[in-house]
Amino acid sequence: MAGGEGTRLRPLTSNQPKPMVPIVGKPCMEHILELLRRHGFRDVIVTVAFLPRAIRSYFGSGESLGLEIAYSVEESPLGTAGSVRLAAGRLDDTFLVISGDALCDVDLTRLVELHREKRASVTIGLKSVENPLEFGIVVTDEEGRVERFLEKPSWGQVFSDTVNTGVYVLEPEVLKHVPSDRPYDFSKELFPLLLEMGCPIYGCVLDGYWQDIGNLDQFRQANFDALDEKIALEIPGIRIRGNVWLGEGVDVDDLDALEGPVYVGNYCRIGRDARVGPYTVLSTSVTVREHGRVARSIVDASTYIGRSADVEGAILGRSCDLRSHVRVHEGVAIGDEVTVGAESVIMPGVRIYPFKEVEAGSQLHESLIWESRGTTRVFGKHGVSGMVNVDLTPDVAVRLAAALGTALERGARVVASREGLPACRMIKRAMISGLSSTGVDVADLRVIPAAVARHLLKTESYDAGFHVGVSPTDPEVIRIQFFEQPGIDMTQAMEKEVEKHFSRGELRRVAAADVGAISYPARVRETYATDLLSTLDAAAIRERRFRLVVDYDFSAASHLLPLVLGPLGVEVVAAHAFPSDGVDAAPGLAASISQARRLVPAVGADLGAVFDRSAERLYLIDEQAREIPVERTLLLYLRLIAASGRTGKVAFPVNVSDQVDRLVEGAPGLDVVRTPASLPELTKAAAEDGVVFAGAVGGGYAFPEFLPAFDAVAALAHLLDLLAPVQRPISELVAELPESTLVHDRLACPWAFKGLVMRVLNERLAGRDLDLTDGIKVVDDRGWAQVLPDQDEPLLHLYAEGGTREASEELAGELRALVEEIQSGSPDGEALGNRASAQNL
Length: 841
What we know:
Blueprint: E1 22-23, E2 26-27, H1 28-38, E3 43-48, H2 52-59, E4 68-73, H3 79-85, E5 95-97, E6 102-104, H4 108-118, E7 122-128, E8 136-140, E9 146-151, E10 162-170, H5 186-197, E11 201-205, E12 210-212, H6 216-227, E13 238-240, E14 244-246, E15 251-252, E16 262-264, E17 269-270, E18 275-276, E19 280-282, E20 287-288, E21 293-295, E22 298-299, E23 304-305, E24 310-312, E25 315-316, E26 321-322, E27 327-328, E28 333-334, E29 339-340, E30 345-346, E31 351-352, E32 357-358, E33 363-364, E34 384-387, H7 394-407, E35 413-418, H8 422-436, E36 441-447, H9 450-459, E37 464-470, E38 477-484, E39 488-489, H10 492-504, E40 518-519, H11 524-533, H12 538-544, E41 547-551, H13 561-565, E42 571-575, H14 589-603, E43 607-611, E44 618-621, E45 627-628, H15 630-643, E46 648-653, H16 659-665, E47 670-675, H17 679-686, E48 691-696, E49 700-702, H18 712-723, H19 730-735, E50 743-748, H20 751-764, E51 769-771, E52 776-780, E53 783-789, E54 795-802, H21 805-823, H22 836-840
Parallel strand pairs: 3-4, 7-11, 14-16, 15-17, 16-19, 17-20, 18-21, 19-22, 20-23, 21-24, 22-25, 23-26, 24-27, 25-28, 26-29, 27-30, 28-31, 29-32, 30-33, 35-36, 35-37, 36-40, 41-42, 41-43, 46-47, 46-48
Antiparallel strand pairs: 1-2, 5-10, 6-12, 7-10, 8-9, 13-14, 34-38, 37-38, 38-39, 43-44, 44-45, 48-49, 50-54, 51-52, 52-53, 53-54
Helix pairs in contact: 7-8, 7-10, 15-16, 20-21
């Protein structure tokens, strides 16, 4: 009997039938089928009603279990007896009826033997329970013959503690008494009718375990009982230390991190210093990241538990995604495919239904049933990012690429590249497959910096490009960057077009003859190097005879930079070069900078250069082994460009220090262009005529004459070109630069309040000197302050710059107070309390 909907088990049963809820790594019904097999049953008919495909697709014909399984589908509710009658045509001998959602290990052989011994029409499996009020009571005589039925009695009606387990042995002729025109129940209708007719009905008190899984507490208890071996189940995997079960391919950093009783399913991954406490069940492919903790919890397959997350006494469905520092309290139940943002807290007893998103930093006190609390955008600030094989899987990559291909013309050409890790290779190949399916041709550059792909797109007139890399903040996160002509980041208009096709599933699929081709262009690195060298004064650089320390951070730039610096006569001491698939993780930016600082004085280098993993951002160390802050590096580039006599425009985001404007004031022929604080907007501006330089705080610099995008190799080469005629150590040049007083702060702000905050803030500051290029920037005699909503997270960025650091802090504090005042006010923004902050600003 597998037609149960399991309403009291929601959200676990919101999108799966009740018999499919997992008990120590298997559906409850699978344990029942294994029990039948142990007792010699081979032919099984499964009655299904709610989501029948989920059961049929899992169990199929039963061959893998050594059974022959057939199915009987209820098109409308027929009751327990009615659903069995529907299959009466295949029941020509004594048969057993058993529930697929009540866990048990009772002696079915004894039950059948008693039935035949008594020549009974019906034999009911009975169980003694402490509290019979929730069950149907069966009263029998000394011979076991049933005398009376009581459905869910009161204490005054309790004459026995033996209850109906829903396990019956029946003769096929009893089904003739089941009407076909209405729902009909075994215990409430058919059995009382047969008893009244004088048919022999017997009860058999069964030994062993029996637990109805009717609600979340019973579901949790059934799993705990299985771990305590109160029931005989075929638990998969090997058993160690008595009460720890490990499935196939489990990756555990330290076995002592598993405190039994515990079940860890196939291919689970337990990170360093993570803990799995007693009475925990982890189904197949669950990941618990470093310093995570799970205890007294049931976690279904493919769920991801992030760094330092804490889950205790909870139930988590399939393919959930709990980000870092999430706290899930006792009694929480989370359905399938729920995403919980970083640092969120789910309070005791909360239920979250499937396919919801809880934004980062939330405190959830009530159940989340209908609405999601998060953003549904595919693209973020830096393309598309996701945990590999968690929310960014190969099938997602195929759909994403197919959406891109659909947004392009059939026969369009796309260039693809990647970083060296196997995960990047997997996602890139999936992307190529998706593009090919839409009739788009792909040029695969394999492992190479993104800048080379951008350069090929620009010079060979490709229609688009993408690069698959690793997030600089988390090696488990894959980042896909998208480009368009002439090598700039994908514009917002094109992003929306791709998102439209992705979300709607409206993807172009071409015939076999029109599938896109894949090519592997030759000598693209050499072409890139030749074109870059043509923009430099190679003779001046060779004459200067630079000596550098370069830390590649395992970036693919180690294949590229020697082709540029070699012809320039630059001597290089390199570290962390030559990326390979065997490299698990880069040393990290801080470690690379620290090593470069030690190497620079040791080899007498003129400067040190550290690349990020994507070879887009550049970090500098002067000849005295001091790290040059990125905001001063930006000013250094601008000072050198102004001193070189170059003319044109220089582009910076609106939140970059006003020092750039002051430096340009003394340089005739240079004009500052301000852009919104996004990389696509900055690279778009860099691609316009007359722009000679673009940069942003964070180590990204672009020389649009060569490429209008961040490129660490080109940035380093142009730095040498600018330094060559100066003949002064870089430390002296940096010392002459003005000190930056820019401050940056972050303020948590729920997604639902972002629009309100910006609207009310704009109203409150009306009449002031405002810059609305991006966010709200207010200018006064002391300097400026800016509020900028984050595109990816539920927070606001606060920037401020005054004449001194103290003035900047004062401006930032006033702006923070005003924003917090708006957030704490009434929904319409009227009751805002003290207006001093707005008046000060």
